[in-house]
Amino acid sequence: MFFLSNLVNGLSLGSIYAIIALGYTMVYGIAKMLNFAHGDVIMVGAYVSFCAFQYWGLPPVVSILAAMVFCTVLGVVIEGTAYRPLRQATSLAVLITAIGMSYLLQNLALLIFKSDPKNYPAQIIGMPGISLFGGQLKISGVTLVTILANVVIMVLLTLFINRTKLGKAMRCVSEDRGAAELMGISVNRTISLTFAIGSALAAIAGVLLCSAYPIFDPYTGSMPGIKAFTAAVFGGIGSIPGAMVGGLLLGIIEILSRAYISTQLADAIVFAVLIVVLLVKPTGLLGKQIREKV
Amino acid sequence: MKKLLAMLMAAALLLSCATVLADEEAITLKIAHIGPLTGAAAVYGNATSNGGKIAADEINAAGGKYRVEYTTYDDTHDAETSVNAYSKALDDGAQMILGTTTTSPCIAVSAEAYEDRVFMLTPSASSTAVTADKDNMYQVCFTDPAQGTASAEYIKQNGLPTKVAVIYNNADAYSTGIYQTFVDKAKELGLDVVSETTFTDSTKDFTVQVNDAKNAGAELVFLPIYYGPASMILQTAAQVEYKPVWFGVDGMDGILTIEGFDTSLAEGVLLLTPFSADAQDEKTKNFVATYQAQYGEIPNQFAADAYDGVYALVAAAEKAGVQNGATYADICDAMIAAMQEITVEGVTGTMTWSANGEVTKTPTAVIIQNGAYVGFNK
Predict the structure, then answer these.
(1) Residues 6+ positions from B4 with CB-CB distance below 8 Å
(2) Rounded to 5 degrees, what are φ and ψ at B197?
(3) Which residue of B has its CA nearest to A8?
(4) 3-class secondary-structure state, position B200
(5) What whole-number distance in Å separates Cα of residue A163 and Cα of residue A185?
């Protein structure tokens, strides 16, 4: 039972990592850049939903929607103002800009909300938990919602990418940006769309993350962001099922090694597993082999 | 234009002469306070800045032998910025430093101050690394190790449960320092430490740690950590219906101020602190009332430490016979000698200092009841 409850906790943490990793992997797949500000968009999502619920008294669902809308706009604005002008620049310049954007968001939040941590209201995801095996295994409502949300997002996103015209455009841009442009696909619009979807997902991740682990401050997004980035690499960056698998595995490994091996070594083990996977499969678990023509 | 400037200068000169004449007897001490007024640790820096300001105002209003010119410099809890703030303070003519508020900047600044021979008293940087090998560096607060030892002694002496779990942050020198001395003292006193788990700054999930303590049957959980993770641990424990006695240290101070936190979860949490805002002595009552009137909140331990720090600096200056216009280097050695001789009765207790810069005072425990700290008497 101890194992099962840890496994459920791992699944829950892994689902949050997976949702965040989707944002990293989509942006990488399509824009070929690492958006390090993604973790901080999560934090913004948490603050917006917090304000909407706590200060403006909006109902939970509206608060979550408000966070999603705000983050979507934020994502598009970040892309349009910070990354688009650098489309032809070296990847290093884009990377540094992304790190700068991450600091900008953190410090803006610090300026507005101050550094004191806040407690995320439990009522936003006010689902009652369930009790299995005669009360031996308790699963909280947030955990259920998180795992469910992960599955739903995954299915919808896969359908969107594979069945819609916009999804097809995204796949095209990912495969060959130049050729896609020649075929009449607007690369800029497609990348904007990717940022919009990724940021909306980040808002959801922010709500779920802070509902599960309620203390948050302006730095809340950065570490889960890095872990989720690791998950994306683990699963094969650029691959959507890869982000899902990587996120879930990372969460489960983290919780299980903390429970059974050592609370001290948990993070070391997670990253050791990453190194081993990358040594054996350099493109990640589900990553595509890319042949470069010389 | 030049004439105007000259006239202004002359006027300023006259004015400054006038002030000197009026205060002929009084000796002005230039105390520079360095702490984070902005950034992630701003809560602490603002508390020490405000607490010290109140003490300075009181001393100036009382009109004794000394006046205090109290200036605060922001270091954003960054070591490099802190050293710059320190240089700026010396340029401005500071004679002694009250600071710095947080530990890692304090280690950096105290190394400079040791070279320059500037007397420093930190209200709240509690690591032993702050004072180590520096004769000019003193502390108002307990050192980290002293907190661990004192906590174990307190638990033993007051008949609290002896089956103990410890959850600490192994990425933080403050937390590991207290943990180490706590466990050593606990062994010596025969406390039974049944569970020891750790986390790092990035840890979000505390179910494993809480379950470990619960499954080991610990009746008291010692939390030598800051209030952010502590509040998560309390919430996790509530979910798994685990109700031990919670025992924290000064980092726990602040748990009631988290916005949106259900303070009923912190009900019954004990914490070891030298300052309790609801103490009934005259000094504490006055200090709390003034602080509340000026800043609209109940002062925490950091504010109290800085308040006592200013009084300690003035007491030491008096003992050392600091005169008007003395430079920091002139008075440093006399201040060091004086610091070891004075006894200061402040709001955080009666304090004396040893040659290694550490303070001696009696800790008391407070318990959280109905969302407020009250003195704990078993």
Answers:
(1) none
(2) -130, 160
(3) B207
(4) coil
(5) 17
* A-chain residues near B235 (CB < 8 A): 214
For residues B125 and B190, the answer to whether their CB atoms sit within 8 Å is no
Q: Are B124 and B141 in contact (CB under 8 A)?
A: yes
CA–CA min distance B332, chain A (Å): 36
Q: What is the set of domains in chain B, with CATH numbers? A: 26-142+282-360 (3.40.50.2300), 145-273 (3.40.50.2300)
AA identity, residue B354: S
- Whether B113 and B135 have beta carbons less than 8 Å apart is answered as no
Cα B287 from chain centroid (whole Å) = 16
DSSP-based three-state secondary structure for A151 = helix
DSSP character string of B9-60: HHHHHHHHHHHHHHTSS-EEEEEEEEE-SSSTTHHHHHHHHHHHHHHHHHHH
Joined together, the tokens standing for residue A45 give: 């999502």
Tokens of B91: 């340029």
Strand B364-369, strand B344-346: pairing: unpaired
pTM of the full structure: 0.76
The Cα B339–Cα B352 span in angstroms is 8
* Alpha-carbon distance A171 to nearest alpha carbon in chain B (angstroms): 35
Give the phi and the psi of residue A56 in degrees, each rounded to 5.
-100, -5
Residues 6+ apart with CB under 8 A from B132: none
Does the ipTM surpass 0.95? no
Find, among A9, A67, A12, A94, the residue nearest to A202 by Cα: A67
Tens digits of pLDDT across chain B (378 residues): 566 666 666 666 555 554 444 445 788 999 999 999 887 788 889 999 999 999 999 999 988 889 999 999 999 888 899 999 999 999 999 999 998 998 889 999 999 999 999 999 999 888 888 888 899 999 998 888 788 888 898 888 888 898 999 999 888 778 888 899 999 999 999 889 999 999 887 788 888 899 889 989 999 999 999 888 898 899 989 888 899 999 998 888 778 878 888 888 888 898 887 787 877 788 888 999 999 999 988 888 899 999 999 999 999 999 998 888 888 988 999 999 999 999 999 998 889 999 888 888 877 788 888 877 777 764
DSSP structural state of residue B259: B
Asked if A141 has any chain B CB less than 8 Å from its own CB, the reply is no
- Domain coordinates in residue numbering, chain A: 15-128+139-222
Spatial separation of the C-alpha atoms in residues A216 and B232, rounded to whole Å: 10
Partner residues linked to A86 by β-bridges: none
Report whether A29 contacts A251 (CB < 8 A). no
Nearest to A248 by CA among A285, A210, A195, A280: A285
Dihedral of CA B51/B56/B57/B62: which sign?
positive
Whether A224 sits inside 8 A of B204 (CB atoms) is yes
